[in-house]
Structures are given as C-alpha cells and as structure tokens.
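Just wondering, can you check both lines?
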Amino acid sequence: MLLASMLVLGACNRSSARPGSHGARAFVSNEASGDISVIDIATNTVAATIPVGKRPRGVQRSPDGRFVYVALSGSVPAGPGAKEPAAPPDKSADGIAVIDTATSAVVDRLPSGSDPEQFALSKDGTKLFVSNEDAALLSVVDRVSKRIDQSVKVGEEPEGVAVSPDGRWIYVACESSSAVEVVDATTFAVVKELKTEARPRSVAFSADSSKAYISSELGGTLAVVSLPKHDIVATLKIGGRPMGLAVAPDGGRVYVSTGHGGDVMVVDAEKYEVVGSLHVGARPWGLAMTPDGKTLLSANGTSDDVSVIDVNTMKETGRIHVGGKPWGIVIVPAAG
C-alpha cells in the first residue's frame, strides 16, 4: 500500500516535470516534510518537490545520474543518548525510495533493513550499502533483485557510510562505538576498526582513494586516514559539532559542516589545518559540491534552507528555501 501511494504521488509530480535535457540539479532530502526539493543550480530555484515518505535522510545518486536514492525511516527522531523512543517505530515505512531524475518521480522502492539513515553505492551502482542504526548492521542491497544479500555486523548506531572511489572499501561510522569499521567491498568482512573521537558522523574519501576523512560530532574533530593501510595520521580540532563532509575534486580542501555551530569550515588537506570558515544557515548538515569544484551547497536543518557558497571567495551567494529540516544533498550533473 505504501509503495502504491508513493508511486501515485510520483505520478502526480511527473505531470509538471519535463523529461529530457536538464542542467545540473541538487536533490535535497527534507526530513520533517517527507519530501525531496529539486534545485536548479543555474537559477538557484526549486524546480520540483517530490513526496517520498517518512524521514528522508541519506540521499545518493546512481553513477550514471539516472536515479536518485533516498533512505526512509519510520523511527521516531531522538537525540543523542536517548534511552527510549518517543513512540513505537513504523517499520513499514523503512526503505529506499528510487527517483527517476528525468521525470522527478518516485518509480521504485528497495528494501533497506531496519531504520536506514545513510548509505553508499558500489562503484558500478549495482549494490547499496545501508547503515541500520537501531540494529548495528550494514545491509548489502542488490539493486537488480531488490533483495538484501547480506547483513554485516558493525558497531553500535552506524550512521555515515562511504565507499572509496576505487570501489575497494566501505567505511561505516558507528556513533556509540566511537569507531569506524573498515569493510572489504568484495568479501564484506570487517578488516579493521578505527577508533575515533566521540560520535563519528560522516566519512568522505579523496578522489584518488588515498585518504579518508571522518567527522566526530561530540569530539569536535576531523580525522585523516591514510589508505590502503587504514591508519589515522592526523586528528584536527574543528570546533562546533562536525557533521557533513565534502572533498574538493582536486583533493586540496575538505569542507566540514558544524551542525549547531552554524559554520562550514575549510581544511587544507595537505597541511592538515583549518584555513577558513563561513557562517551559514541554522544547523548545517549535508554538503555537496558541484563537479567543477566551484560551488558548495549546505543543507541547513533548522532554518529550512540551502546555502549556496562560492568556494573561491568562501562567501554565501544565495539562500534557497526548501522543505522542513533539510538533511542531505546530492548533485546530479547536467544531462541531455
């Protein structure tokens, strides 16, 4: 019934969308309003709003840009350290919605395991690696068969998931364990555990897969990991509550959102030092950078907007109102 209603909603939205060529667009997940805002990057306007389901958070795109995936959860929001949920979870709402980027319509739904929050795709886009926060698992979802192939035991409260660009490694940030699990993307074996500062939230890799970065919210730090040995080689004090990450295409800089700190911090990836900052909207979380490396977008969770940032000047050039509590952002390059 839920999938049918989602597809009907998607069909309603499709009537206002025009398949074919598109400029670059940002897909923003709005946790509170249960929808996706589609931003036309050329005009900094919302081109479509797509109803998707309960608590959309993690959002990614397929390698070819044809689809955007968004994690949905029926679990009730709870702050760090909460002992009991405010209400029973609606497990029927858990899943991964699939959006056709040509029509801005929900066209499919994948299983996700319990309470999905973030996920990443395999290099070829055939598998999704989903963190199941309340089950301490990483679910391996097959895109074609629409089945969970495997469940990997990881640390407590897994959240951030990232796959190295070379496709070899899956990193899973486990908040309550203050650790990141390193998973072999072929065997799905946990090959190493990296101890971090308190409450790691996100992971991002450099384009050449030589480095990984881990934000720790309560530790107020950014850890730098050297691959392929998976050694933490530096831990930088960031301040605020480090959350989302974006790495410049050339690997020279890393951008860190600070949640309730309200800033986006700029880190020199060679010197391992903070070299700039910008105050944006309230509670910035998800970050995404345009493929040319010139523009950074920040999802500001409690001001219900997205900041548009010129990375050369580190100035905010626009603020776009979106849905309720924007959480994640993914950019789909121009097509057509």
